[in-house]
Task: inverse folding
């Protein structure tokens, strides 16, 4: 059943004395560009935020009001903080362990990264053509429309015999235009295990931020035992890797089958994407169902870390997927990944290609902090994923020559 998760978001509060001092002629243009009120977005598509750059100076110092609305995990509030602007970025540290970094994209949007203990989240804000306090407060008080709807995907589980018929919780970013459109199915990673609460819902906001403007719908389904999905967390509780993978593959198969039947989906243009265990799952599934999906975007994929005694399972499954000669794939990894180093990924990708797999591997060396969170830095991989998706649809045969 389709229904809105949040029809709108709670508004963002502002101090009564909020104001904007327009930059003087002595302020460089790249610094002055940040001045003003910015709104209309939410961190990770979930936590609404509003930014007022009250003043900027020629030396790059700035005064900021940073506001955030109410969400399931946070109460609304605001703080007035100092920021520095340099090299096209506005940087601030509102509290210990938290950093905020904003930059203006080519389309004039303000993109932001919120990082707490190396875990980043992103937001896209838009400049508001207002400067007086009353108008700013009025805009900040407006709800931010939800970026997604929530759907339930039915599954008859064979790996969890006690569950039988169950439902998977899924987040849907639907293309609003009429007709059938391409779809990206995103596969989330593991809990760590235990580092990420099993109840936490992965929205893959960064992927939707990049792919929705390209005409794609994006769906993110939580597998058994995760979020509000039914069943047991077999893929992390069972000791047998093959049973773990079978449980995850069963979930993904239910999602693919369900989405193929939706009237707004072009069943010939389904692309799988995934992070960590989800990236591994996407590669393996495409190998097992080589004609079911058009392509795969694999972010830092693997089932077990390279230091695990079970890491052989990664290579075995990647070679099997390559031997199936499935669709062209794009593998992405980053330096300073504590689970899968670029050298390790390159070795796995080499084995995948040697077995017959088709694709391209790209390594990024400019990801701050933990490289395993590459997917959370969309400005770094946007161009490469956009190019891959375009070529995948128009000239997929080109991949076989790489």
Result:
């Amino acid at each position: 059943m389709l229904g809105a998760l949040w029809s709108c978001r709670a508004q963002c509060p502002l101090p009564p004395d909020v104001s904007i001092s327009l930059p003087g002629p002595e302020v460089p243009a790249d610094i002055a560009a940040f001045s003003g009120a910015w709104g209309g977005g939410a961190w990770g598509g979930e936590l609404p935020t509003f930014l007022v750059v009250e003043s900027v100076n020629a030396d790059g110092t700035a005064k900021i009001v940073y506001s955030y609305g109410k969400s399931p995990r946070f109460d609304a509030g605001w703080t007035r903080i100092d920021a520095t602007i340099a090299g096209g970025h506005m940087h601030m540290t509102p509290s210990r362990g938290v950093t905020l970094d904003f930059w203006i994209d080519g389309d004039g949007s303000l993109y932001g990264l919120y990082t707490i203990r190396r875990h980043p989240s992103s937001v896209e804000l838009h400049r508001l053509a207002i400067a007086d306090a009353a108008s700013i407060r009025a805009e900040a008080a407006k709800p931010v429309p939800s970026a997604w709807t929530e759907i339930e995907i039915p599954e008859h589980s064979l790996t969890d015999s006690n569950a039988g018929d169950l439902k998977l919780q899924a987040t849907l970013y639907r293309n609003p235009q009429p007709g059938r459109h391409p779809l990206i199915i995103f596969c989330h990673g593991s809990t760590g295990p235990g580092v990420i609460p099993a109840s936490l819902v992965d929205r893959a906001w960064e992927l939707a931020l990049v792919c929705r403007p390209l005409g794609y719908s994006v769906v993110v389904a939580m597998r058994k035992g995760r979020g509000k999905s039914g069943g047991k967390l077999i893929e992390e509780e069972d000791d047998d890797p093959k049973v773990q993978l079978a449980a995850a593959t069963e979930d993904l198969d239910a999602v693919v089958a369900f989405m193929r039947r939706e009237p707004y989906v072009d069943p010939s243009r389904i692309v799988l994407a995934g992070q960590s265990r989800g990236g591994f799952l996407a590669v393996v599934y495409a190998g097992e169902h080589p004609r079911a999906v058009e392509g795969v975007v694999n972010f830092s994929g693997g089932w077990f870390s390279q230091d695990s005694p079970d890491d052989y399972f990664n290579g075995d499954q990647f070679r099997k997927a390559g031997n199936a000669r499935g669709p062209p794939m794009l593998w992405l990894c980053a330096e300073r990944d504590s689970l899968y180093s670029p050298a390790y990924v390159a070795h796995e990708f080499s084995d995948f290609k040697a077995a017959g797999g088709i694709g391209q591997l790209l390594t990024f060396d400019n990801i701050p902090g933990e490289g395993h969170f590459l997917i959370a830095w969309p400005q770094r991989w946007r161009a490469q994923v956009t190019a891959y998706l375009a070529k995948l649809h128009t000239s997929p045969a080109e991949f076989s020559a790489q």
Summary: The chain has nine helices and 16 strands.
